[in-house]
Specification:
With 135 residues, the protein is mostly helical. It has seven helices and no strands.
Length: 135
């Protein structure tokens, strides 16, 4: 049992033409939900051995054992897009950004390639300095 259902988690990231305006979520809500899911996943994996031992020793318990989010849910999270947006707005996410980055590096190392970050930084600098050079 996970505190937020898969549908609840994914609804935070689902924003298209069919989504009613009163059900759209802010960037902060999306980043916080991403952080929550990654933190839950990290905690689950860190305690998996203890959870397995506990579930085998207390099989008659009325509480269901904690479960992880399915890989299908994890694959639908817009991790790279939200990491880029959080990176561009680090001032707004000063306390959250380092923890979010650590979780993403741990569980999605392929999204944190140095070459990608250098290219992104070059594009940002080009966009900032191009209008200045025209003047």
């Amino acid at each position: 049992q996970v505190p937020f259902s898969a549908e609840e988690v994914l609804s935070v990231f689902r924003q298209d033409e069919t989504t009613p305006t009163n059900q759209t979520y802010s960037l902060s809500s999306q980043i916080l939900m991403l952080y929550y899911v990654l933190y839950y996943h990290d905690t689950y994996l860190s305690n998996l051995k203890a959870l397995m031992l506990l579930s085998t020793s207390v099989q008659s318990s009325s509480l269901p054992p904690p479960r992880a989010y399915s890989p299908n849910v994890m694959l639908q999270l817009p991790v790279k897009r939200l990491l880029q947006l959080a990176s561009m707005n680090q001032g707004s996410y000063t306390t959250l950004y380092p923890s979010l980055l650590r979780l993403i590096i741990t569980h999605y190392p392929h999204l944190c390639l140095t070459e990608d970050w250098i290219k992104q930084e070059e594009l940002i600098q080009e966009a900032v300095f191009k209008p200045i050079l025209r003047i």
